[in-house]
Amino acid sequence: MTSISNKKDGSKIHPDVSSSSGLSHSPKIAFSHWDQRYSQEAWSEIPDPELVNLAKDLEPGRALDLGCGTGRNTLWLAKKRWLVTGIDSSYVGLSQAMTRARSLNLNIELIHHDLAEYDPPTRQFDLVVVSNLHFAEPMRTRLFEIAKSALKTGAYIYFLGRHKDSIGHKGPSDPRVLFSATELRDKLIEFEIVSIFKAERNSKSGRPPSTNVIGWAKRED
Ligand SMILES: C[S@@+](CC[C@H](N)C(=O)[O-])C[C@H]1O[C@@H](n2cnc3c(N)ncnc32)[C@H](O)[C@@H]1O
Fold first, then answer.
1. pLDDT tens per residue, range 22-68
2. How far is the centre of ligand 1, averaged over its atoms, from the C-alpha of 159 (Å)?
3. What ligand 1 atom has the least distance to the C-alpha of 35?
4. Which domain holds residue 65?
5. How many domains does the chain have?
6. Global pTM?
7. Looking at the domain assignment, is residue 70 inside a domain?
8. Which CATH number does the domain housing residue 149 bear?
């Protein structure tokens, strides 16, 4: 992982590459279908309402947004005075997040990196966000390992993933990457679970609403 440095405007960039977006492009990561998608369609800027509700009363600290994409949740947390690090393998997504952060005069840290090879600083974060990351094993398990390693004792993981009930609706259809509440409970076995619940999302395309499963849990030890 390349380290990050401060810019005059408060945004942070990798020091070894300067580009118009102010982000360092990791040469090891190829242009992906996510880069393609973010280039072609405007991604939502609205943070997860469940995250907003669960985190709104927490004292701001350091947050890590895994697979932050274009930064919906990263930017909401930054507005709430969290010091946020977003990590994603899509350079296009991160560039959009950085552009928005600048226009809102927000200070965020963004890292272009593959989560498969990412070792977070241990026990540094007060909140880890994992939203809409639909991986098959072994990456699915790795996400929770990264989160646990990054969190301080007593700090929170927020997880949102598409529920298996949503097969056939918009979004991923491979059951191996979707979740049931029981499967999420198993993944959070090493955490103290505060709540696991389902929530529906209305689809803009007029299709039936899809269901997400949300987990809110604490690192115990
Ligand atoms: C559905 S989007 C979710 C983005 C964001 N969390 C949100 O909810 O708006 C999935 C994101 O995961 C990122 N991603 C996929 N595989 C990744 C990997 N191996 N390492 C880092 N990011 C990855 C993609 O680039 C994409 O931005």
1. 678 999 999 999 999 999 999 999 999 999 999 999 999 999 999 99
2. 13
3. 25
4. 7-219
5. 1
6. 0.91
7. yes
8. 3.40.50.150
All residues at 6 or more sequence positions from 2 whose CB lies less than 8 Å from its CB, including other chains: 14, 15, 16, 24, 26, 111
Ligand 1 center to 57 CA (angstroms): 26
With a Cβ cut-off of 6 Å, ligand 1 is lined by 34, 67-69, 72, 88-90, 93, 114-116, 131-133
pLDDT tens per residue across span 126-165: 999 999 999 999 999 999 999 999 999 999 999 999 999 8
28 assigned to some structural domain: yes
Q: Which residue carries 């690192």 as its tokens?
A: 219
Q: Is 204 helix (H, G, I), strand (E, B) or coil?
A: coil
Residues constituting the chain: 221
In a 13 Å sphere around the CA of 57, the CA atoms on its Cβ side amount to 2
From atom 12 of ligand 1, which residue's Cα is the shortest distance away?
67
Q: Does residue 12 surpass a pLDDT of 70?
A: no
